[in-house]
Amino acid sequence: MKTIEIEKYKPCSEAVEFRKKFNSFKEAWEQCTRGDWMLWLAYKLEINNRILTLAKAMCAKTILHLIKDQRGIDAINTSTKYGKGKATQKELDEAAYKAQCAVDEIIHVPVDIRIYAATCIAAYCVNIDNNNTNSVTIANQVASCIGYNKISAKKENQLKTANICREILTDAVFEKLNIK
To answer: The pTM is what?
Structure first.
């Protein structure tokens, strides 16, 4: 069995099996349809927080229309600005705090689970202190709740987030893995 570059980061077995289908990491990255896996790896590779936050924010925007609390919307917008170097760490921290307050308030009242999940995504996308790929995982789940064909909607959102991650993270990930 060949050793692959991602195994040392202890990915899920499904990701390892996916990687083994390809001759190179580059080929696997280009074919990956899971933004959550890509964000997870970027976190493990210690990609710059601004780049990682931008990727998470852009993935979270795939279900921005479900967020009903302005604090959640502001969190995603601030994350995007932070990722582009147009917001400070302090502004990001404030947005994270407000988004988390929105989540804490929603949890105690009857609300559509999609709205709760979307608000959680806003809070997660500004949280740069952990490997929280939950924003993408939850976005994929929420997309499946919305879609007529749940499996199709989830897969569609997974691909959408993977394309976002490919666009934002590829250079940084390849640099960390010394891939040309």
So the answer is: 0.83
